[in-house]
Amino acid sequence: MNLISLHEPWATLMMLKFKRVETRDWWTNYRGPLAIHASKHGMSLEATLEVCLQTPFYNALMNYPPFRERMIHYRIAPQPGDVDKRVMKFCFPNRGKIVAVVDVKAMCPTSAIAAKHPTIMTAAELAFGNYDPIDKTTGKPRHGWITEFMFEVPEPVTFTSKQGLVHLPEDTHAELTRQWRATNL
Length: 185
Prior knowledge:
- By secondary structure, the chain is an alpha+beta fold.
- The chain is built from 8 helices and 6 strands.
């Protein structure tokens, strides 16, 4: 099993089944189970909050109790000056942990996803990914990794990751398998 590390809120969106396509500027032949790791570090607090307050993100994340409870605490959406590390840690308590497992079913150039996978391409899905045909930074073509949800990890597993696809060590794979079996009895 391989793993990919995503910044928040994207890892949580995959865990909540709101995001099915991961977009990257690189192709992989890998198909099969893919552990979703919520990166311990990522964007600044302000940038994360700015993304989370966009309507499609906010609406989806309100289904996630830690985020919803913090937003209810504010009674309205917080402003950037209201945010500190404790708030974001409360909203996304699983940073640095494996939160879900998906199944990579296919790869597709981002320019062709809507035609080849029309049922997946909702307005929210479009908002959750970078569907530019060419990456503006690298100049490389962008690709969508089409996934199906397998399971949310009931007890998120702490893991130190790096960028790219990471092959899981046997002990981490065994722990995810144990949790999957426990949820599918």
